[in-house]
């Protein structure tokens, strides 16, 4: 990076940028315009520009003097300011610059939004999306900086409310509405990061119920992201059919090359699939580094309750943080299908009497797995299993469970264990 | 200054219309109680420090400090005397139009906005503590619990309102919150139909209170009723230290038994290990769990082998006669088989949906809990 630049060179860089800007606008070239606004991208051309701005210092004059660009002064002045601040951070780590940045952008990008409202078609949508993205990223970084010096991080919260306004701009009739899903996804990311996930609800309601939005019209990339986040929300609500549908949607549309994305989806999809009786292969868990589920799967296969509880404890923090802990806890009900193993063993010994299982035998089996339960508790569990149709049979008062001759352990068949 | 704070604490959803203002408010409806400042110290070791899960408000606005020396601000007292709006406990010699500074207690005001509030209308922490002592002492009076309860419920709400407006988070305040929560838990136990504090209020109390997680239990079990946030979401934010606390582990265990339908352990563990306050919170769910047990036994049983009620009553820790009544409540049939009463198995599937609060509660047969109830500690 050139730390030193001549005044002439600086002037040239700035003028060059202004030309590109006005050309992009006049030819309605959304892609180019977006690239000119990607402040955090650290692209070399923007870095050169930032250096130029630092050298020249009075770029505003150039803007005002430019025939083509003076009308965009409202937008360009803060962009330059933002870029300069961002660049300074690299050199001087000045939090002040970062702190002002999101506010600057928000204050004056409102003007940009106004402009946008007036531009006829939706060509500048891509640029708008870039702005939305930049605002979120810069706010996140500003908050980090603020937190590290002991101040209250509140920029991201502000970014959230600003983006709600942007959403409002897009949520109208006309071709612009196609961008609404992108902004929605940015909002989701903000709310998930802040932990204020309940705020997602109002945006979701707008997307899913407003008649102006046709879900299929939205770009694929946005739909995919949207389904991922709404799928995650459904995990919290333990709404398994919906979660399965949404996360699977995201999974099938995810490029196989984007391993990090696949991993994120699987992290939430696996517990749900486990709940409906579908177990992932170890190969999958290894490939995407989801080894925390390995013991859970093994416990389910073995019917080993103690292993399940241990697996949950071992990765408790991780599971709690991702919000899947309670889902996994409920898998205990499936693990009691240890009884099925007993049934199979008994069948080998004496096929005629196999379907009659003494509760004492179950107690003993559990003891082998170091689970200490008395006959009363086993009876309780067996009756729950029967009640929830995980097992078909009858409990006799002589402390024996008589399994149904036909299909005593119905397959879950993709239906979640009812609560 | 007061303007911005007031706006944050009002019940309204504010839209930021002016694009030049640099103060941005989020779009969630603000509840006066949720926006109280949460101390940003390192007393909680959060699970993932990078995630910064705690929500804080800007600390640059100075806090309001109340100066009202009485339990009720002078203006309000005069106004309510004029309007004859005095509770029974506030009347001087029974006169509905006369009160005194030792009897009148500030009422809870729903529509208050900190915009117009005067420091002279707000009670400082010491006065609030005295007020709380006075209110809780009323419980010892001879009056009907129901009557006293409503009064105390409202006036403690006002205390919380004053605490919130002043953004108080000291240990003294926390102790006051604890006492108020205890009051709510026990009064809920005695009067199942009485109002309970706003869920959001309770939630904030829990985040503040490091030690006593009784209230956390309260929240954790009653969360299925909570509209705001699911239990999983809430668990994400509870500080690690609290998650690992003895009380929280107990709560999570009980919760697990409840969710899995393990009626035996649910009742057994409650009887054996719950403190009296924890029991008060769990009690409403015991009926539901017992009903579930009955439906299970009924469904999974053999019709030629009715289940003896004696055994069942031991399991569910209730008197046999109460169990019989519960069977009837659940629409299940009993009969006698020569030895004793039995539950008939009918594989009923229609009525099998135990709903909370649907069944009458029958006492838990427990010497231990009886003893604890008698020893109930001072509020």
TrEMBL record, chain A:
Residues 224-409 form the PCI domain. InterPro entries: Csn12-like, PCI_dom, WH-like_DNA-bd_sf. GO terms for cellular component: proteasome complex. Gene3D superfamilies: Winged helix-like DNA-binding domain superfamily/Winged helix DNA-binding domain (1.10.10.10). PROSITE patterns: PCI (PS50250). Keywords: Proteasome. This is Proteasome family protein. It comes from Abeliophyllum distichum. The lineage of its organism: Eukaryota, Viridiplantae, Streptophyta, Embryophyta, Tracheophyta.
UniProtKB/TrEMBL annotation, chain B:
Residues 71-197, 231-335 form the SAC3/GANP/THP3 conserved domain. Gene3D superfamilies: 1.25.40.990. Signal peptide: none annotated. InterPro entries: SAC3/GANP/THP3, SAC3/GANP/THP3_conserved. Residues 1-37 are annotated as: Disordered. This is SAC3/GANP/Nin1/mts3/eIF-3 p25 family. It comes from Abeliophyllum distichum. Pfam families: SAC3_GANP. Coiled coil: none annotated.
